[in-house]
Amino acid sequence: MTCRGAPANRHADAIGRYRVRWVRAVVVVLFVCVAATGCVRFPAPPSPPPVAFGVQPTPPGAETDAAREPAPNSETCDATASLRPGPMPVPAQMPQRTTMADILGRGRLIVGLDIGSNLFSFRDPLTGDVQGFDVDIARAIAQAIFDDPNTIEYRVLSSAERTQALIDHSVDVVVKTMSITCDRVDDVAFSSPYYIASQRILSTRTSGIDGPAALAGKRVCSARGATSIGRIQAIQPRARMVTTTTWADCLVMMQQGQVDATTTDDAILAGLAEQDPWVQLVGPSLGEEYYGVGIPKGQDDMVRFVNGVLNELRVSGRWQQMYDHWLSILGPGNGPPQPVYRD
After folding, report:
1. N or C: which end of the chain has fewer CB within 10 A?
2. How does DSSP classify residue 216?
3. What ranges does the record give for the region Disordered, renumbered to this chain (predicted)?
C-alpha cells in the first residue's frame, strides 16, 4: 500500500537531486573558469583596523579616572647628585662588614624589576631568559660582586611596589626604569643616573592625537606609581587618567580601544611601539626622567659600589654597547649621563 506522503517525498527528493546537480555544475564552471582564464576575482581583505584584537575585558587592576597626583619636581632638591665611588674591590672578595659582603655570603643578588618593559626588562619568548638594558645593568653589578653575572634572583615588581620593596629590604637593588625624584629620595637611596629619558605620548596612527593638547577629554593610560601621571595631569588637566599594573596592559587597552593614548618615558614607549605597528610616539618631550639604581636608605657603601660599577661601564665603552644593542631604535643618543657627586 502506498502512503499518502509518498508523492511529496518523491518531489522533495527530486528538488534535492536538482540542487546537488546545480552546485556541482557551479563548482565545475568555477574550476574551469579559474584554470582557463583566472576570471574569478575575490576582493582583497581590508587593511587591519587600529584595534589589533577582539574586545577583551579590562586588564585586572586597571582603574579609570585616577586621582590627581603632584607633578614631579626635581628642582626643589639636588636629587640626581650621588655619592662618589671608592676603590672597586676585587670581584668575589668584598670588604668585610659591608653590604656587598652580606650579598656575597648569601650567594645571590636580589634584583627588583619587571618582565613587561620591552627593551629594558622582559622575558625572551624563545629562551625564557630575562633580558634588556636594565637587566644588563643588574648583571654588571652581579659580575662586580661575584665575578659571575648570572648570580641573580629576580623579583618581579610593579612600578608602585618599587619603593616599598627597598624600604622593607625584600630586594638588594631595584633596576626598573626608576626615576630619581625628590619625593623618592626621602625614602630610598639612588645611584648616579644611568639613563636619561624623555616623557612622550604614544597614540594609534588614526587617533588624531599629536600632542598633549589633543588629550583633553581623552583616556590616557599609565602604570600605577609612575611619575608620568602627575606630569601629564599638570600639563593637560582635562586628560582622563587610566592606571594599570604594567605597561603591557596599557598597550592591550589601546589595542582594544579602551584608552586613547599612553604616556611615559620614550624608551618604554618605543618598546611598546616595537610590538604594534599601529601605534607611534607623538608630540614633544614633556620632561626628562633620570633613571637610577634604587638602593635601601642608609646603605652608602652599596651606593658607592654601584656608582663604581656604572663608572666602569661608562669609561670602558660597555654602556654604549648596551645602548646600541637595546635602544638604537631611539637614535644614536648622547652617550651615558655624566655623574654629579655631592662629596
Report:
1. N
2. T
3. 47-92
